[in-house]
Specification:
By secondary structure, the protein is α/β, with parallel strands linked by helices. A 7-stranded parallel beta sheet has the order 3-2-1-4-5-6-7, with helices on both faces. α3 packs parallel to α4. Bound molecules: NADP nicotinamide-adenine-dinucleotide phosphate (NAP).
Length: 254
């Protein structure tokens, strides 16, 4: 019998990651979630299992700011079910405000390097750690960027430059590892409703969030709208697709 495919969800305790884990489990994947604290991982595991104590879901705990933690949690995650078929990287890193977004003249160029060091270097370390697993499963690495790296907009010059770096990494890596059977993608949201990030933005700048919601003709997506795309791209149904940066933004940017 074929082994059950295993999805590692990093940032699995977050708004989007937890929904990806839920929908992947419901679609027949075994799931390992990574979260920053034991309590948040355990709370989510209980919710995912519900009354099914045999559900194929497990958790690993890691704060990626700690040296060696990325490599360690990937090894721990791979050991749970003995394989990793896909990674949905839903981790958020770095400041969302305070230096890298906002009117350009009010941003702090010195914040660029720490942000890239955290976000892009983390992604590169994650990719190096998971590639051996994905090569042996013809797997998929999927990460999140944001529309700031795809569609020009005011207030996004610095974070847009950083996101464009991540997009360049995804596309180049996709080209390099396709011959190993590995696929690499990024999903690019803009504003996502029903998330912790959106709640913070609504509190800090309610007008911006409401303006975005009005401009999105299809309505802003929620994690429930994003997770099916993640599960599809990670699975065998998308096995001839790679290197795609897919915006999901309710029609806000086209
Ligand atoms: N939500 C949006 O509006 C939006 C818009 C554009 C792009 N995105 C992108 O979509 C992806 C998912 O976003 P989201 O809304 O689901 O974010 P979220 O709800 O804030 O979740 C972030 C996740 O990352 C974890 N995390 C943060 N710092 C960590 C660290 N140092 N070590 C280990 N784990 C850490 C969090 O753990 P804890 O639970 O312990 O905090 C949580 O699991 C991100 O890449 C984000 O940039 C989101």
């Amino acid at each position: 019998m074929a082994k059950q495919s295993v999805l590692l969800v990093t940032g699995g305790t977050g708004s989007i990651g937890s929904e990806v884990a839920r929908q992947a489990l419901a679609s027949g994947w075994a799931v390992v979630i990574q979260g920053r604290t034991e309590s948040s991982v355990n709370t989510l595991l209980s919710a995912l299992r519900g009354s099914d104590l045999e559900a194929p879901v497990a958790g690993v705990v890691a704060d990626i700011n700690k040296k060696g933690s990325v490599e360690d949690f990937v090894v721990a995650a791979g050991r749970v079910f003995g394989r990793i078929d896909a990674v949905a990287d839903c981790l958020v890193i770095g400041p969302s405000e305070g230096g890298i977004t906002g009117p350009f003249e009010k941003t702090d160029p010195e914040m660029y390097l720490p942000f890239v060091a955290l976000s892009l270097v983390y992604l590169e370390r994650l990719a190096q750690a998971v590639l051996p697993w994905l090569k042996s499963s013809d797997g998929c690495l999927l990460t999140f960027v944001s529309d700031a790296g795809v569609f020009p907009a005011p207030r996004q010059a610095v974070i847009g430059a950083a996101r464009a770096g991540a997009i360049g990494f995804v596309k180049n890596l996709a080209t390099e590892v396709a011959r190993d059977g590995v696929r690499v993608h990024a999903i690019s949201p803009s504003f996502v409703a029903d998330t912790r990030v959106a709640e913070k933005l609504k509190a800090a700048a309610p007008d911006r969030f409401e303006a975005a919601a009005r401009r999105a003709g299809l309505g802003l997506p929620t994690p429930k709208d994003i997770a099916p795309l993640v599960v599809f791209l990670c699975g065998a149904g998308a096995k001839k697709m790679t290197g795609q940066i897919i915006s999901i933004n309710g029609g806000l940017n086209v």
